[in-house]
Amino acid sequence: MSKARRKAKIDYDGGLCAGHLLVWTWRKLVQGQGDCPLLVREYARFAGPNADLLLAAFAAFLMALGQASRRTLSVGRPYCSGVTSDEEQMLRLVAAVQEDDRALVAAHLVWMVRREQQDSVALAVNRLAALLTVSGVVLPPVRTEAPVGPALLEVVRVYA
What we know:
- The chain has one domain (2-134).
- 59% of the residues lie in helices and 0% in strands.
- It contains 7 helices and no strands.
């Protein structure tokens, strides 16, 4: 994994980090702009000959995710800098697959996808994550730590 991280930092020096590029791609695909020349150039820059495969795998994953989702997914507008909670969740799912954290992948799938379609989404995200890794792109894992020490509750009384 560390070799892939190093490669991503060296080979992909575009103006966007990989996570932002994935979000931007999702937004472009939703808008029907999947053939955007700038988008194609950015994928060619870091994925080389795998660019078309990677774009197709990402589109297939998004299609599976959209069809299997428990609700309508929130996708931001192209060129907006903020990331929606669903876009962030998608990135976290891909990162968990790349880290081979099966428990976290299962948790994301339970949260996002109807039970009967979890296998199809899992296959699609595994293919996407594998192609990203082969291209040298590894999304950073999300790490959360439990708070140190006991939780304190301060009782405040308000007198009227």
